[in-house]
């Protein structure tokens, strides 16, 4: 008995795995499966496409370019880089109620926030409130690491340095008088950004933490004075700063500036004339950029975007068309072949 | 006394040592002194100290050297250097793209996986080394004046060791003493060459006549021998005694490490080579490394990938330069100055960017491809190894894959070169017929019996006649089947006993022993002329002694038959004379009998009294007792032919009862035991194609040469008969008739051998001997001298007769050949056998068809002579068969397939000439089958090399014997048959098969699978990497060609290594495009691999285009979907990564033809792994992983409906073309698989299919079109010809 076992010691195991006989499913793509499959996929896609398209259509978007390239533009005089503290006014009207909540974006074009060396130029430790990094910022911030007096720049790096600094005020013209539309600057950045990722150093008052440091070269005010109206919205957790620090994916982008959710405008912007007051600071002409303001409301799928709905519709129709072609081919070839 | 003898030896030794010091390196020989002379001296005094000791260390690394050495070895692979270069580039701040530490991860991962594998292998080697080094052996110690136990590793060159029976030799040892009365020592060399027969080794002649035990203390000779080398069959040198006498040393004196002592109770020897310098270790080569065709092709495409990479980088660099240039001096706010605070010029930034891009796009060169291929190949080897259908129960052997990295080559073979004997045939030799002195003895009874066996169930027969390499008594008895395998039918009662007895026999087969004598020949002595009678006796004596067969007894396995009972006066006297002849090297010796054989035979007819006069053995004419005694003898031969002949002779009661190096004892009917003094054995070699023994005939005292060899050579050496005398005429007639019979035998497919003899006068012998001894003692060119010496001896022979031995075809050979043929494989048979035999076997295995025109190329002696000069010998072709030659040119193109080319060795020599090889190939290619007979091993390998190099085809050589080794090594894939003729072929091969018929499944099924799996996997790899990298490339257009990536660096680096790695490995290992049954039923499918249809150069580019298309879709759908939104870089990039992963996995799904649970699991695992890693990574650290810092990105995405909508539509759009393509083209192969899915064999694969498939079936049909068409043409032609 033992001997026999020894004899077959080197006999391979007769299992489905070793003999490569594992039960296997081979996709049987016969016409009976493929054609109905295509029809089903097509119908489903058309359904989704219609839903997306309708949703997208329901979204209102209003874009206002205020770069001031054209001479007629109210902001033309501001576009000269030598003019400081320029304020310009843009008037527009809304024909019917702009349904709320309305999101107020600023947009830039031809602006490469995704430029590789630009994106690297920041110090995450500093931005999370590490005081050591205040005195000696990371090399990655170079050359916006120290100023000419060799004082550390806080927040360092190119991203922070180039922070967008135009400010906007929106007025509704009611009977010839300007009525300011209240902006909600809370919650425009990611919750995790101002609660987890970015922290101010735990020093009170905040300005003490910045002793011995200088503000970024392009900044008018230091980081701890970014929002004079709300002391909690200063330093690295200033929401405008956070929005800026989240780099845009593409060179033409918009960033959320404020939401309009309060007071009379909680339901949206009523029809009427409006005036947008812009503190024009940010230079874009050097790189042929454009600046704009976008007013938009959003749906479950985000902002207005017709592409996806159309794509679904096209692909869905394509599936249907293909299933019809296949059906014809099937009908044509089935019978001669069967003979 | 011992003291006295030592001192001069000491001084002499030190003199030698001083000489050695003067010219240490020039010495071409090794000098070995006995160590015990130096026991007291310091280590440096010992002249042997320079030689390696016996500790073996096969490990490559030590603890310290592991890291540097392993890394050094790994960096021999260019790809690794490239990846390390890129990883290091990342540490340069100006150009870095990723976190430098992270960029190291893949390289470190790949390197460490390989390193761990190497370390494990090395550890296992270390363990086994330790085990071997700590084995015990007995070494003589001068201090204790006895043999003491020591470890193997403590053994040194010059030590005396004592060996006991069944011990394994620890080193290469010169045999100085043996307990065997004949001063012999038997060894089994199975571990070296796989041959299980015992080999005799001989005590060095000078120590031959020591009466008492060998005393190491008295030893004071010096041995000079050659430097260590790996030739197992060569050892030469001499021993210098104190007296100044020199004695030559031969390989017969050397016991090799690793062999086992058998049959000898005790032996003493001195260590000559130790440790790594032993022949066994020098022969121990590592596994073979070959590069497969697929891999060569792949490397070309890797090269293309590099080009694509460089082009992409260059494009990006130029783009970046222009982008920078457009801003001119006006620096945009988002620009970043150089660290020095100055502006970078566009050109400088372009150059830096070029390097950055190489880092970013590095994934295009698939770092994990090489590792993945290795993993898949290991799995493939595992599956081949595990295949039940490639397992031979009889010998309990698997198919062995000895080369691990050419499995896919099996699917691409175009030419098969096969040996005949032992490969196509069983190599179990059966004596069938013989002719003696021109009279044919047909052995009809034998033939009848054989024919009857063949009718029987072959399977049963297989069980009983199993290959005799392993004694397997139990299995055989359990397989007992009551057919007359073991003896003639009427005696079936005796079968069980007979089988038990015979299966003990390790190296001979039942059939070999079992010969029914031809009654006509058996009764000869009473009815024939004396001269004929003498020829008959000589014939059998030649059969019996002209060989190297060792006799042993079956009851005590591996115990030599001791000739104690037969230690007759006669033999002992001859022993004494032997020794005197050895010492004096003189040829004259006295003999107790000077009468001729014939006289003896005449006397034998008269009363027994005379018998006693020259044979003290009690005469036993009682047939029964005689037979019983004989039945216990067993013959172990190096080649089965020899054993068959000895058994045949025994059937005629002329049996070999003992063989000593100097003497062969033969038992003859009526004469009893005769001891022939064996003067010389001129062994068989493939050039001479014959062997000879020189003996002194005990009765006549004549020096007789018996020669046995191929008929072609022997016939040329026959003494031209003196036509004048009547005897001469008769002789001529005999030669002619023998030649006729030989032709007849060959036509029957028998292996023929001619037996001849020659009687030397004493003067002739003395003359020859003198020159022979010179040759033997020569150190330089000894082989050549011995060869010439043999040629001088083997002339003017007297023909005795010829034998025909049958070698049956292996099971399933014709079927296998037929189906390999159908698979489009060209099969050439290269054999050393004679033409007629080879042709016959070729007919039997359907290699040639009777209706085929044969195209014989054999040059006659005259032709050879006349064309030997400046003539172009190729003309022989047309002259020898003008009709068929011209017909092959004039006839329609496909008629060439009727032709079979048969070419013999002599002609082949011309054909392989540089000027003619092209013509030869042209002729050979137009023939359906090619048969080269009488070819030498060298010619075999030359033919393979020629075909391989000139036709640029994939070649496979299959063979079983040592003569096939060179051919096996030359071919792309070498296959060895682990059969009867030892293991040399297996040792040299890449794959070792137990039987020829397994070649069918190995090639048609496993070859096809391995090839198609690997080809698809490699293509998929290229596709996958290109697709992923192209995503980033498209992005460069939107980020100022700045080398920025929207895909997080972690995903970028681990995408290949982790997220998408497993499914392709599973598919690469398990996918079956066609089921095994279909592949075997439709061998035509093999053409797929031959034409490399799974992986053609254009397919790489198709894949690239597909990859670029898919990446465009995966890039631009999210691009448009997120256009004009406030999406940030990585919130936009992560969906793209996800989409790419889905697309890549679904693409693999389309490529996968069979889905097992493992495929599902691996894909599910990949997706789960990606999301798990992404979620963990995005939640782990809020401030780490600069610059991407993707905290909470994935979490937010999973709440975004847009993300899911993208995940649905993008892979569908991306894969729609390739999916429709796959609907359109389930190529010929998969159409066949359609029917056979679910394991049904598919008689009509089309029936289950839908419309597209019907169309595609047509396409598939057209695809095999040429092949089938040609086949059809052939069939019709053949049919036509038959009419």
Structure report:
Chain B: One of its GO terms (biological process) is phospholipid translocation. Chain B: It is an enzyme of class 7 (translocase). Chain B: Residues 44-101 form the P-type ATPase N-terminal domain. The complex is a heterodimer of chains A (339) and B (1283). Chain A is an alpha+beta fold and 339 residues long. Chain A has 2 domains: 33-59 and 300-330; 62-297, no CATH class. Chain A has 10 helices and 10 strands. Chain A has helices at residues 2-7, 31-57, 116-120, 124-127, 131-135, 158-161, 191-197, 206-209, 239-245, 306-338, and strands at residues 61-65, 86-94, 98-99, 102-109, 167-174, 177-180, 253-260, 268-269, 272-280, 290-297. In chain A, the strands form 3 sheets. In chain A, strands 1-10-4-7 form a 4-stranded antiparallel β-sheet. In chain A, strands 2-9-5-6 form a 4-stranded antiparallel β-sheet, with no helix packed on it. The longest helix of chain A has 33 residues, at 306-338. By secondary structure, chain B is of the alpha+beta class. In chain B, strand 9 and strand 10 (246-249) form a beta hairpin. At the A-B interface, helix 1, helix 2, helix 3, helix 4 and helix 7 of A face helix 9, helix 42, helix 43, helix 46 and helix 48 of B.
Task: Annotate the secondary structure layout.
The complex is a heterodimer of chains A (about 350) and B (about 1300).
Chain A: H1 2-7, H2 31-57, E1 61-65, E2 86-94, E3 98-99, E4 102-109, H3 116-120, H4 124-127, H5 131-135, H6 158-161, E5 167-174, E6 177-180, H7 191-197, H8 206-209, H9 239-245, E7 253-260, E8 268-269, E9 272-280, E10 290-297, H10 306-338
Antiparallel strand pairs in A: 1-10, 2-9, 3-8, 4-7, 4-10, 5-6, 5-9
Helix pairs in contact in A: 2-10
Chain B: H1 2-22, E1 29-32, H2 66-74, H3 78-89, H4 100-133, E2 136-141, E3 146-151, E4 160-164, E5 172-178, E6 184-188, H5 190-193, E7 198-202, E8 222-226, E9 237-240, E10 246-249, E11 254-255, E12 260-262, E13 266-273, H6 279-282, H7 293-327, H8 346-360, H9 367-386, E14 400-401, E15 415-418, E16 425-436, E17 439-441, H10 444-455, H11 458-464, H12 473-478, H13 495-503, H14 510-513, H15 519-522, H16 524-527, H17 530-545, E18 550-552, H18 569-584, H19 597-605, H20 609-614, H21 623-631, E19 634-636, H22 640-651, E20 655-660, E21 663-668, E22 672-685, E23 690-696, E24 703-709, H23 711-717, H24 726-747, E25 750-760, H25 762-777, H26 782-793, E26 798-809, H27 813-822, E27 826-830, H28 835-844, E28 854-857, H29 861-867, H30 875-880, H31 882-890, E29 900-904, H32 905-911, H33 917-925, E30 929-933, H34 937-951, E31 955-959, H35 965-970, E32 973-977, H36 984-988, E33 991-993, H37 998-1036, H38 1049-1059, H39 1061-1070, H40 1076-1081, H41 1087-1090, H42 1097-1121, H43 1129-1151, H44 1157-1180, H45 1193-1197, H46 1201-1224, H47 1228-1236, ...
Helix pairs in contact in B: 2-4, 3-4, 4-38, 7-8, 7-37, 9-37, 9-39, 17-22, 24-28, 25-26, 27-37, 37-39, 37-42, 37-43, 38-44, 39-44, 42-43, 42-46, 43-46
């Amino acid at each position: 008995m033992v001997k026999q076992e020894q004899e077959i010691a080197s006999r391979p195991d007769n299992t489905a795995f070793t003999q490569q006989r594992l039960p296997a499913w081979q996709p049987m793509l016969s016409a009976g499966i493929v054609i109905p499959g295509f029809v089903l996929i097509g119908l489903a896609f058309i359904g989704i496409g219609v839903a997306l398209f309708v949703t997208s259509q329901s979204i209102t978007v209003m874009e206002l370019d205020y770069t001031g390239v054209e001479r007629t533009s109210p902001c033309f005089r501001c576009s000269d880089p030598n003019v400081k503290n320029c304020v310009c006014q843009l008037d527009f009207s809304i024909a019917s109620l702009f349904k709320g909540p309305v999101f107020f974006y600023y947009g830039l074009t031809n602006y490469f926030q995704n430029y590789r060396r630009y994106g690297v130029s920041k110090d995450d430790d500093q931005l999370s409130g590490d005081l050591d990094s205040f005195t000696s910022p990371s090399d990655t911030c170079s050359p916006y690491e120290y100023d000419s007096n060799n004082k550390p720049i806080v927040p360092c790096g190119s991203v922070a340095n180039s922070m967008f600094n135009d400010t906007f005020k929106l007025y509704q013209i009611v009977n010839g008088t300007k009525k300011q539309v209240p902006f909600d600057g809370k919650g425009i950045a990611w919750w995790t950004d101002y609660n987890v990722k970015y922290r101010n150093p735990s020093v009170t008052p905040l300005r003490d933490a910045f002793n011995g440091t200088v503000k970024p070269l392009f900044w008018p005010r230091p980081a701890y004075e970014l929002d004079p109206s709300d002391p909690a919205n200063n330093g690295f957790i200033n929401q405008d700063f956070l929005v800026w620090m989240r780099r845009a994916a593409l060179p033409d982008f918009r960033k959320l500036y404020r939401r309009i959710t309060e007071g009379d405008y909680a339901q949206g912007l009523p029809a009427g004339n409006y005036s947008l007051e812009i503190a024009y600071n940010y230079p874009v002409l050097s790189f042929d950029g454009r600046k704009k303001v976008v007013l938009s409301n959003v749906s479950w799928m985000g902002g207005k975007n017709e592409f996806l709905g159309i794509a679904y519709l096209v692909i869905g129709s394509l599936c249907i068309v293909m299933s019809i072609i296949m059906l014809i081919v099937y009908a044509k070839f089935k019978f001669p072949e069967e003979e | 006394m011992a003291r006295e003898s030592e001192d001069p030896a000491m001084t002499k030794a030190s003199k030698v040592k001083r000489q050695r010091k003067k010219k240490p390196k020039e010495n071409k020989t090794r000098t070995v002194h006995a160590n015990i002379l130096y026991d007291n001296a310091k280590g440096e005094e010992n002249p042997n100290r320079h030689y390696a000791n016996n500790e073996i260390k096969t490990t490559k690394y030590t603890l310290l050297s592991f890291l540097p050495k392993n890394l050094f070895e790994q960096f021999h692979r260019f790809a690794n250097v490239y990846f390390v270069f890129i990883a290091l580039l990342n540490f340069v701040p100006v150009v870095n793209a990723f976190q430098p530490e992270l960029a190291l991860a893949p390289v470190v991962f790949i390197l460490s996986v390989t390193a761990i594998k190497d370390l494990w292998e090395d550890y296992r080697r270390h363990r086994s080394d330790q085990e071997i080094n700590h084995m015990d052996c007995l070494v003589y110690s001068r201090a204790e004046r006895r043999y003491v136990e020591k470890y193997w590793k403590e053994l040194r060159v010059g030590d005396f060791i004592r060996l006991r029976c069944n011990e394994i030799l620890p080193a290469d040892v010169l045999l100085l003493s043996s307990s065997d009365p004949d001063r012999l020592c038997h060894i089994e060399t199975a571990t070296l060459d796989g041959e299980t027969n015992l080999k005799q080794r001989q005590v060095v002649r000078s120590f031959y006549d020591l009466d008492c035990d060998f005393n190491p203390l008295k030893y004071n000779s010096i041995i000079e021998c050659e430097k260590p080398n790996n030739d197992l069959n060569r050892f030469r040198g001499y021993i210098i005694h104190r007296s100044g006498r020199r004695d030559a040393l031969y390989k017969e004196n050397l016991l090799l490490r690793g062999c086992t002592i058998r049959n000898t109770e005790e032996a003493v020897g001195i260590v000559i080579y130790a440790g790594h310098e032993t022949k066994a270790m020098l022969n121990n080569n590592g596994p073979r490394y070959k590069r497969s065709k697929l891999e060569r092709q792949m490397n070309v495409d890797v090269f293309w990938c590099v080009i694509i990479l460089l082009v992409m980088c260059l494009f990006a660099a130029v783009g970046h330069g222009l982008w920078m240039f457009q801003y001119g001096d006006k620096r945009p706010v988002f620009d970043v100055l150089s660290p020095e605070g100055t502006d970078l010029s566009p050109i400088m930034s372009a150059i830096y960017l070029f390097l950055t891009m190489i880092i970013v796009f590095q994934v295009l060169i698939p770092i994990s491809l090489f590792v993945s291929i290795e993993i898949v190949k290991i799995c493939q080897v595992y599956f081949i190894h595990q295949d039940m259908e490639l397992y031979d129960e009889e010998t309990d052997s698997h198919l062995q894959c000895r080369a691990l990295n050419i499995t896919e080559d099996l699917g691409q073979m175009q030419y098969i070169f096969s040996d005949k004997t032992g490969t196509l045939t069983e190599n179990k030799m059966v004596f069938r017929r013989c002719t003696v002195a021109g009279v044919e003895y047909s052995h009809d009874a034998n033939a009848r019996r054989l024919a009857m066996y063949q009718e029987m169930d072959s399977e049963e027969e297989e069980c009983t006649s199993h290959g005799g390499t392993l004694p397997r008594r139990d299995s055989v008895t359990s397989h007992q089947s009551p057919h007359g395998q073991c003896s003639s039918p009427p005696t079936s009662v005796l079968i069980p006993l007979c089988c038990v007895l015979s299966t003990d026999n390790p190296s001979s087969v039942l059939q070999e022993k079992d010969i029914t004598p031809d009654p006509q020949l058996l009764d000869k002595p009473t009815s024939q002329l004396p001269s004929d009678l003498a020829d008959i006796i000589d014939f059998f004596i030649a059969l019996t002694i002209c060989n190297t067969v060792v006799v042993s007894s079956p009851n005590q396995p591996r115990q030599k038959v001791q000739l104690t009972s037969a230690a007759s006066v006669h033999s002992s006297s001859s022993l004494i004379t032997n020794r005197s002849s050895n010492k004096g090297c003189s040829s004259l010796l006295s003999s107790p009998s000077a009468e001729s054989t014939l006289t003896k035979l005449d006397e034998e007819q008269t009363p027994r009294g005379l018998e006693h006069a020259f044979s003290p053995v009690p005469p036993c004419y009682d047939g029964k007792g005689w037979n019983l005694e004989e039945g216990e003898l067993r013959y172990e031969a190096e080649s089965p032919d020899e054993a068959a002949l000895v058994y045949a002779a025994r059937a005629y009661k002329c049996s070999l009862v003992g063989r000593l190096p100097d003497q062969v004892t033969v038992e003859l009917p009526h004469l009893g035991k005769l001891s022939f003094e064996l003067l010389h054995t001129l062994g068989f070699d493939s050039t001479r194609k014959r062997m000879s023994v020189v003996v002194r005939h005990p009765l006549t005292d004549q020096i007789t040469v018996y020669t046995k060899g191929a008929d072609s050579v022997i016939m040329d050496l026959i003494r031209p008969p003196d036509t004048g005398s009547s005897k001469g005429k008769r002789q001529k007639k005999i030669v002619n008739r023998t030649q006729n019979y030989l032709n007849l035998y060959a036509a029957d497919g028998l292996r023929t051998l001619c037996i001849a003899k020659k009687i030397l006068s004493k003067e002739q012998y003395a003359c020859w001997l003198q020159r022979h001894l010179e040759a033997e003692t020569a150190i330089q060119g000894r082989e050549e001298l011995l060869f010439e010496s043999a040629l001088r001896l083997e002339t003017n022979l007297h023909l005795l007769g010829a034998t025909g031995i049958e070698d049956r075809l292996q099971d399933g050979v014709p079927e296998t050949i037929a189906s390999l043929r159908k698979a489009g494989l060209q099969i050439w048979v290269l054999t050393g056998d004679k033409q007629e035999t080879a042709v016959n076997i070729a007919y039997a295995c359907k290699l040639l068809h009777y209706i085929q025109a044969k195209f014989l190329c054999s040059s006659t002696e005259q032709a050879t002579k006349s064309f030997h000069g400046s003539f172009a010998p190729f003309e022989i072709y047309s002259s020898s068969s003008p009709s068929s030659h011209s017909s092959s040119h004039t006839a329609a193109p496909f008629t060439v397939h009727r032709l079979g080319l048969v070419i013999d060795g002599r002609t082949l020599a011309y054909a392989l000439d540089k000027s003619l090889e092209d013509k030869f190939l042209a002729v050979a290619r137009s023939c359906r089958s090619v048969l080269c007979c009488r070819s030498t091993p060298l010619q075999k390998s030359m033919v393979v090399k020629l075909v391989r190099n000139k036709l640029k085809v994939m070649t496979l050589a299959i063979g079983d014997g040592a003569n096939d080794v060179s051919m096996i090594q030359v071919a792309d894939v070498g296959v060895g048959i682990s059969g009867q003729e030892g293991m040399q072929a297996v040792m040299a091969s890449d794959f070792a098969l137990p039987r020829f018929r397994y070649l069918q499944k190995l090639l048609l099924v496993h070859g096809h699978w391995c090839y198609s799996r690997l080809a698809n996997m490699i293509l998929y790899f290229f596709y996958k990497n290109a697709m992923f990298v192209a995503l980033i490339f498209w992005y460069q257009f939107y980020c100022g060609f700045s080398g920025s990536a929207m895909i997080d660096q972690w995903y970028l680096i681990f995408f290949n290594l982790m997220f998408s790695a497993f499914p392709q490995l599973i598919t690469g290992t398990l996918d079956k495009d066609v089921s095994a049954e279909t592949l075997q039923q439709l061998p035509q499918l093999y053409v797929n691999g031959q034409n490399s249809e799974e992986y053609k150069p254009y397919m790489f580019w198709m894949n690239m285009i597909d990859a670029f298309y898919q990446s465009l879709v995966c890039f631009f759908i999210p691009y448009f979907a997120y256009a004009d939104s406030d999406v940030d870089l990585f919130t936009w990039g992560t969906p793209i990564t996800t989409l790419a992963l889905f697309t890549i996995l679904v693409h693999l799904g389309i490529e996968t033809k069979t889905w097992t649970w493992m495929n599902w699991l691996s894909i599910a695992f990949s997706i789960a792994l990606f999301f798990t890693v992404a979620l963990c990574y995005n939640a782990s650290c809020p401030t780490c992983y600069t610059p991407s810092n993707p905290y909470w990105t994935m979490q937010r995405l999973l709440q975004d409906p847009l993300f899911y909508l993208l995940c649905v539509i993008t892979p569908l759009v991306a894969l729609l073309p390739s999916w429709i393509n796959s609907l359109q083209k389930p190529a010929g192969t998969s159409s066949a698989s359609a029917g056979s899915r679910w394991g049904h064999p598919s008689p009509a694969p089309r029936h289950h299919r839908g419309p597209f498939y019907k169309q595609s079936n047509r396409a598939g049909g057209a695809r095999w079109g040429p092949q089938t068409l040609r086949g059809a043409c052939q069939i019709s032609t053949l049919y036509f010809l038959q009419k």
